[in-house]
Specification:
With 364 residues, the protein is mainly α. It contains twelve helices and two strands. It has one domain (2-363). Strands 1-2 form a two-stranded antiparallel ribbon. The N and C termini lie far apart (45 Å).
C-alpha cells in the first residue's frame, strides 16, 4: 500500500511539472499545443542515452531540457505566425512523427524493445538517520507549502462566490477531500522515507524540482514579461500596438514550456525505470490538458490542484469492482466518466476551479 501511495505522489508531482509547461504555453500565452508529449520524449530519451554514456545525470537532464527547447524553437519559428488551430494541428503531428522515429530507430533508442537498466538518481543510496530526517523535513515543508497555496486559492474562490450571494459548498467539499488526499500522500511518504527505497528518494527529488519550477514560473508570470504574455493571450494586436515583439514573446513561452516538459520527461523515465515508445502516446498530452482545464487555465496553483484531483480520481476508480463489466470495459468506462465530468465542468465553470473567467483563452 505504501509503495502505491508513493507511486501516486510521484505521478502527482510528475504531471504537475508536465502540466505547468502547458499552462505557461496555453494558460498564460494562449498557445494551443496538442503535442506536448514530443518534448517529454526528447527529455526522457536524451537523459537516458547520455547517462548510459557516463554523462552525469544533472547534465543529462539539462541537455534534454535544452534539446526540448530547441524543438520548441524549430516548431515556433515555422508555426507561431499561423492561426491557433493550425498550430494545434502541427504540434500533434510533430509529436507523432517523433514517437515514430523513436519507435523505428534501432541504434540509439532500441526501437520497440525500449531501453532498460539505465542510471537512476539516488540509486544505491543508503541514507543515515540524519539524511532520512532531512528528507522528511523537506517533504513536510513542501506539503505545508502546497496545502497552503491550494487552501488560499479555494478560499479566494469561496469569498468571491459569497460576495455574489452564492454558497459554493462544492468548493468546501472539494477542499476537504483534496487536503485529506494530500495528508494521506504525506503520511505514506514519511513511512516510505523512514524505510528508504529508491522511489522514496525520487519522490523527494521530484517535489523539490517541482517547487523550484513553480516558484520560478510564479515570479515570471507576475513580472513585466508575464504581463506581456497575458496581453498577447487577450489580444495580440494591442500588444503589437504597444510596440511589443509578439512573435518573440510567443517563442520564448514556447521554448520555456517545452524545456519544462523535457525535465518532466526525465522524471518520467526514472519513474518507469525502463522506457518504450508506446509510453509516449498522445494520451499523455491530453492528460495534461485535463489537469490544466480542471485546475484553471492561467493558474499555476490550479495546475497543481488539477494534478491532485486527476490522480485522486484515478486511484478511486482504479479499484472499483468490475461487476458486469470486464477489465477493458471498466477502463473505457473510467475514460467516459472523466469525459462527462469535464463536460459538466465546462458547462458550469469553464474557467476551471481556480481559474479566472476573463482569462479563458478558448472562449476567444
Amino acid at each position: 500500500m505504501v509503495e502505491y501511495i508513493v507511486f501516486l505522489t510521484i505521478n502527482v508531482g510528475l504531471y504537475s511539472l508536465f502540466a505547468l509547461g502547458l499552462n505557461l504555453q496555453w494558460g498564460i500565452c494562449g498557445l494551443i499545443n496538442f503535442g506536448l508529449v514530443a518534448f517529454m520524449i526528447l527529455g526522457a530519451y536524451t537523459t537516458v542515452i547520455l547517462s548510459l554514456q557516463g554523462v552525469p545525470l544533472i547534465l543529462a537532464v539539462l541537455v534534454g531540457a535544452l534539446l526540448s527547447a530547441l524543438l520548441g524553437l524549430l516548431i515556433g519559428l515555422t508555426t507561431l505566425r499561423l492561426r491557433e488551430d493550425y498550430l494545434a494541428i502541427v504540434t500533434i503531428g510533430v509529436a507523432e512523427i517523433i514517437r515514430l522515429i523513436v519507435q523505428n530507430e534501432q541504434k540509439l533508442t532500441q526501437g520497440t524493445f525500449g531501453i532498460q537498466r539505465f542510471p537512476l538518481p539516488l540509486e544505491g543510496f543508503e541514507p543515515n538517520l540524519f539524511v532520512k530526517l532531512l528528507f522528511i523535513a523537506i517533504l513536510s515543508i513542501l506539503t505545508v507549502f502546497t496545502t497552503s497555496k491550494l487552501v488560499k486559492g479555494i478560499q479566494k474562490e469561496w469569498q468571491a462566490k459569497i460576495n455574489t450571494n452564492k454558497k459554493p459548498y462544492y468548493l468546501f467539499i472539494l477542499g476537504i477531500i483534496t487536503i485529506g488526499f494530500i495528508i494521506l500522500l504525506y503520511i505514506n511518504g514519511v513511512i516510505a522515507l523512514s524505510h528508504y527505497t529508491y522511489k522514496a528518494g525520487l519522490m523527494v527529488l521530484e517535489l523539490v524540482v517541482l517547487a523550484i519550477v513553480y516558484w520560478g514560473l510564479e515570479f515570471l508570470v507576475h513580472s513585466p514579461w508575464g504581463r506581456v504574455l497575458k496581453a498577447i493571450r487577450e489580444d495580440e494586436e494591442i500588444a503589437k500596438a504597444l510596440g511589443k515583439n509578439v512573435f518573440w514573446y510567443k517563442l520564448q513561452a514556447f521554448l520555456l514550456g517545452g524545456a519544462i516538459a523535457g525535465i518532466a520527461g526525465s522524471f518520467f523515465a526514472w519513474q518507469l525505470t525502463a522506457i518504450y515508445p508506446n509510453n509516449f502516446e498522445s494520451l499523455v498530452t491530453f492528460n495534461a490538458w485535463i489537469i490544466v482545464v480542471l485546475g484553471g487555465a492561467g493558474s499555476n496553483a490550479g495546475t497543481i490542484l488539477g494534478a491532485v484531483i486527476f490522480w485522486l480520481y484515478d486511484s478511486l476508480t482504479r479499484f472499483l469492482p468490475a461487476g458486469i463489466l470486464t477489465d477493458s470495459q471498466m477502463g473505457a468506462f473510467r475514460v467516459m466518466l472523466i469525459g462527462l465530468i469535464l463536460i459538466s465542468l465546462m458547462m458550469l465553470r469553464p474557467q476551471g476551479i481556480l481559474g479566472k473567467k476573463e482569462e479563458l483563452t478558448l472562449s476567444k
